[in-house]
Amino acid sequence: MGRILFFVLLALAIYIAWRYLRMQRRSDGADPRDRPRPNDASAPEAIVRCDSCGLNLPQSEALPAPGAEPRRWYCCEEHRRQGTAR
């Protein structure tokens, strides 16, 4: 009877130690499953159309027409010159 009680207590101690270590790893961020994932869904960027050739490109890469209302966008400097010459 004493041996059975010894092994039950030993198994219980191992289980408690395993749970404790697992909780410590989670709080330290060592568990790769608990790390925050990078934000893959960044804010969408507006897409504009070149007024000369019709190419669609991100607004940050487009060249605006100087002083045009409503705003017109161009894909390159040559198209911007052609558009402002009209």
Task: Quickly list its features.
86 residues, alpha+beta, 2 domains, two-stranded antiparallel ribbon, two-stranded antiparallel sheet, 2 helices, 12% strand
Structural write-up:
The protein is built from two helices and four strands, in the order H-E-E-E-E-H. It is α+β, with helices and mostly antiparallel strands and 86 residues long. The protein has two domains: 2-33; 47-85, no CATH class. A hairpin with a 6-residue loop joins strand 1 and strand 2 (56-58). The termini are far apart.
What's the gist of this structure?
This protein has 86 residues and is of the alpha+beta class. It has 2 domains: 2-33; 47-85, no CATH class. It has helices spanning 2-28, 77-85, and strands at 47-49, 56-58, 63-64, 73-74.
| 3D shape | rod-shaped
Any idea what the radius of gyration is? 32 Å
Structural class: alpha+beta
The main sheet orders its strands as: 1-2
The count of domains is 2
Q: Major sheet, described briefly?
A: 2 strands, antiparallel
The succession of helices and strands, N to C, reads HEEEEH
Distance between the termini: 101 Å
Helicity, as a percent range: 40-55%
Number of E-type strands: 4
Mean pLDDT: 84
In terms of per-residue confidence, which ranges show pLDDT below 50 for 5 or more consecutive residues?
Answer: none
Count of DSSP helices? 2
Question: Beta-strand percentage?
Answer: 5-15%
